[in-house]
Amino acid sequence: MALVLALVVGATAVSALARRVSVPPPIVLVAVGILVSLVPGLPQYHLDPNLVLVGFLPPLLYAEALDTSLRDLKANLRPIALLSVGLVLATALAVGYAAHLLVPGLPLAAGFVLGAIVAPTDAVAAVAIAHRLGLPRRLVTILEGESLLNDATALVTYRIGIAAVLTGAFSPGQAVLRFGLVSVVGAGVGLAVGYAIVFVRRRIDDPLTENAVSLVTPFAAYLLAEALHGSGVLAVVLTGLVVARVAPLIVSSTTRLQGQAVWEMIAYLLQGVVFALIGLQLRGILAGLGGRYSAGQLVLYAALVVGVVIAVRFIWVYPATYLPRLISRRIRAREPYPPWQAPALVSWAGLRGVVSLAAAFAVPLTAGSRPFPGRDLILFLTFAVIVVTLLLQGLTLPWVSRLLRLGGMQDDVTLLEQAGAEHTTARLALVRLDQIAAQGMLPDEVEQRLRRDLEERARRAHAVLGPGADDEHLPELVEGAVVAAASYAEARQELLRLERTEALRMWREGEIGDAALQALQRRLDLEEQQII
């Protein structure tokens, strides 16, 4: 217990320091963990793969899915699928063959296990850095979608590789069938659990109970899918996407604010612990090698595997970006050719993380009556890939984005959408305020206070939108009975209800995206809590 407490406190302190110096916390946590692991006399923290895959991974993936726009994922499904499925399989094959040819005595199946382990990018590190850099929204969506979905592909491929090593036989047909079955079961469980949770949460009117259900949701999806021999990772992601899509329509302001705070805290603590754990494994991994390889051999093997992982991503991303547009006129008309800088940045953003290390530790100790071939070397090479991609690519990604002139553009579309929604809802509320004031029950000072706030919001939004904003249609949107408000609280509640309804209408009809709706709802939620 003392070791766990020290780990949590240390990871939290390092994360806070990293934020103060504007360095992504995952990078600092791994580096500090490595340094601590080399200090003689300190106790070792042994990574339990089941703790990571069952305890840490579901809530982390679920938290990321809740913040991901399903609409944006669907709009970018082709590039996301090419990365999360095609690139994972290509990386597994390339690394597997390269390791088999370079390392004496390493079976091809064991090489494929290593390839599947290092194939998926990390769902936390890459996205955290992408948001920090202010990349264009489409690039962030692609990186988010890839990191959310590629874990499922990699872990299914990993299971097939492990089975091939244990049985000594491999059938491509059976592998494809198993891959499809596991994916279909995982997706089915995810959708079923997602809609079941929505059904339950529609009927709950207590924020504490509703958020307790939210905390249990990712574990329920993961464990049910795994029990049915499906992909638990895919189930968690799809459950989160379903809930995130419906939540704006069914969740109260109190529940939403409380839930956001809870999930931010959980993600913050878990991310700190898992990245610290990565660095702390170095001493144990080196001890496991037992001097069977020289330092030169380890450096050569690590350099080769890391080089293949990075090179395959470049080799895959550029054709995957341009070939579909070259072949299909429809894709070309809908999605013009992007500048070469966009795929270059996506190629360099292939950071690996804790899922890879947990999968490596989960490799069985034995294959039948003999030790699992190359297990200790697989652990070391996985650790090398994680550390090099996090430290090398993670630290240089800001510099690369500036060099390619892709930073600082992420929020342009979202800001315009948010300003449009703010302008429309504020002007609409002003129309309703005129109707409420005409009832003659609202004190003049209350009316003027409400009017000043709404007009100020409309002016700020208009300054962002420019002279093209049109308000002539607003009176037509004011429908239903007008509340005869006699106080500030009653009038403001009525106006907030109207603004919230209009924001949801704009979102449902595609006038604003998920990010703009979330920002607008947060402001409305905070205002509502102030007057409750």
Explain what the structure shows.
It is a single chain. It is built from 23 helices and 2 strands. It is mainly α. The chain folds into 2 domains: 402 residues, Na+/H+ antiporter like fold; 120 residues. It has a two-stranded antiparallel sheet with strand order 1-2. A hairpin with a 2-residue loop joins strand 1 and strand 2. Helix 3 runs antiparallel to helix 17, helix 6 runs antiparallel to helix 8 and helix 19 packs across helix 23. The longest helix is centred in the middle third of the chain and has 33 residues. The mean pLDDT is 85.
Q: What tags apply to this protein structure?
A:
mainly alpha, single chain, 2 domains, Na+/H+ antiporter like fold
